Amino acid sequence: MDNSSGVGVIDKAAMVLDALEAGPTTLAQLVAATGLARPTVHRLALALVHHRLVGRDMQNRFVLGTRVVELAAAAGEDRLIASAGPVLLALRDATGESAQVFRRQGEWRVCVASAERPIGLRDTIPVGTQLTMKAGSAAQVLLSWEDHDRLVEGLHNARFTPTVLAGVRRRGWAQSLGERELGVASVSAPVRGPSGRVIAAVSISGPMERLTRQPGRLHAEVVSKAAAELTEALKVSTDSVA
Amino acid sequence: MDNSSGVGVIDKAAMVLDALEAGPTTLAQLVAATGLARPTVHRLALALVHHRLVGRDMQNRFVLGTRVVELAAAAGEDRLIASAGPVLLALRDATGESAQVFRRQGEWRVCVASAERPIGLRDTIPVGTQLTMKAGSAAQVLLSWEDHDRLVEGLHNARFTPTVLAGVRRRGWAQSLGERELGVASVSAPVRGPSGRVIAAVSISGPMERLTRQPGRLHAEVVSKAAAELTEALKVSTDSVA
DNA sequence: GACTTGCATCTCAGATAATGAGACGGCAAT
DNA sequence: ATTGCCGTCTCATTATCTGAGATGCAAGTC
C-alpha cells in the first residue's frame, strides 16, 4: 500500500504514532522502528509532545498522549450522533411520535440526538436537555444493565422498582407512564457498544392519549429494532479494532 | 500559551484535529476555525484522512478518524501498565508474595502487569497469561461489578456463587483458596477507571501454607490500598477530560 | 435553461521550513 | 578513567510546503 499522503511531515508523524502504539518507546527504538534520522524523530516527537498527542513516561520514554484519549472520546460521540440521525427519523415516521437518543452522565441522562414529530401534540426534548435518571423509560434502560452497586444506588428515590428493571432486562425494552411528566408516555430500548455494554437508549415519547396505557405493546418492537440498527451501525467501522 | 512546537506542519495538523473535536466540519468551516489557507487545510486534512486520523462522513464533512480510537485504546493500556509497575513492586515487597494486575477479555482474564516474588515458593504468572474467569479471586472481582446479565452468565459453571460475589461487593475485596490451582491462595481488589467502573483487578497469590486459609484477613487491607492507589493514579492525568 | 454563487479540489513557482550530518553533554557499564 | 550509547542541539543545504489563482461542480435564483 502506498504509504505517502503527499505531506511528508504528516507521514513521518504517523509513523511515530504507529510505533508508539506498541507501548513506551525510547528515542533509539523510535529511530529503529521508523527508519528516520535521529534528530528528525526527536524533533517530530517533541512537536507531538507539545500538542499532547505524545507524552514522556518516568523513564523519559515516549508514550501516546492524553490528547488522543480526548479526541477518541469526541470521535465516539460523533459516530453515535451521526448514526442516530437517520435511525431516529425513520423511527419518528414509523411511530408518528418524537424520537430521541439518551446517554447517561452521572445522575442525569442527556439527549444527544432527536427527531421531533413536526405537527400536533408532541413531546419536545431538544438536544442537550438533561433529564433525571430517577424516572422515565430511558432511565430504566440506562440503569437496567448497570452493575449491582450502581443499580442499587440508582434505584434510590426512583419512580420504578427492581422488579420493573428485571422486566426491562427480560423483555429488552422499557415503558413509562407519566413518570417524568404528567400525561407523557414513552418507550425505550438499549443501544450497545462494540463490547456489548449498554451505552445509550433509543426512545419515543408522546401524549398518553395517543400512546395509551401500554405504549410498549404498540411500539416496543419498532423501538427495539431501531436500537438494534444503531447498535449494528456502531459496530461496522470498528471491525478493524475488534 | 506559545502554540508553536517548532514543526509548522504538525502545529497546523493539530489545529485541524482540534477543530474536528467539536464534530463533523466542512472544509470551509475548518478554514474559518484554523485561519489557514484553504488549499493548505485541504492538503493537510487529506493527509490525515490517508492515515485514518481523520475521516469523511456521508455529507463529505471531515470527522475524527477511527485511528484515534485505536491509539486511545493503546494509550489507556499504556497508562494502566505504567502506573501498575511501582504499585505492584511495593505490594510484592509489603506482602512477600507475587503481585499481578488482571483485565477481563471476554471469558478470560489476562495478566497485564506482574511483580514476582524473587525467591522461594512462589506463584508465577507471566505477563500475557490468560486465566479463566470461572475461578480465582481476580475473576470474582472482575465479575462482581458486571451488570446483571453478565453476572448471571459469568456465574455459570463458576467455582464461586452469587453469595460470594455479594460479599466481594460488600467488603471490596475477594479471596480464593485452591480455585484456580491446588495449593494456591490469592487476594484481589478492584481498580476503577475515571468513570468509577471496574476496569482491572490487583492481586497477590502464593502458597496456601503461607497465605493461610484466610488470606484476606492477612492481606486484604494492603491489596485494597494498592488497588486504590492505582485507581487514583489513573485519575490524575484525566482531570482535564472530566 | 441560463446564470450566479459558493464550495471543494488541483496546480505549481517561489519561499520557507524541515532535514540530517556532525558536535556535544550526560550517563551507565567496564 | 575510559568507552560507548543515548538524547539533544546546531545550522548549511535542499526538498517540501505554501497559497494565489484556476478549475470543476452543485445548488440556488431568476
Radius of gyration of chain A: 23 Å
- Major β-sheet annotation of chain A: 6 strands, antiparallel
> How much beta of chain A, percentage-wise?
15-25%
> Helices and strands of chain A: which structural class?
alpha+beta
Q: Give the helix level of chain A as a range of percent.
A: 40-55%
Task: State the main characteristics.
homodimer; two-stranded antiparallel ribbon; 242 residues; Arc Repressor Mutant, subunit A; Beta-Lactamase; alpha+beta; six-stranded antiparallel beta sheet
Describe this structure in words.
2 copies of one chain form a homodimer. Helices cover 48% and strands 20% of the residues of chain A. Chain A has 242 residues and is an alpha+beta fold. Chain A folds into 2 domains: 8-64, Arc Repressor Mutant, subunit A, CATH 1.10.10; 75-236, 2-Layer Sandwich (Beta-Lactamase). Chain A has a 6-stranded antiparallel sheet. A two-stranded antiparallel sheet of chain A has the order 1-2. In chain A, helix 1 (8-20) crosses helix 3 and helix 5 crosses helix 7 (162-171). The longest helix of chain A has 30 residues, at 66-95. Chain A starts with 7 loop residues before the first helix and ends in a 6-residue tail after the last helix. The model of chain A is unreliable at 238-242 (pLDDT under 50). The interface between A and B is large, with 56 and 58 residues. Chain A binds a DNA duplex (30 and 30 nucleotides) through helix 3.
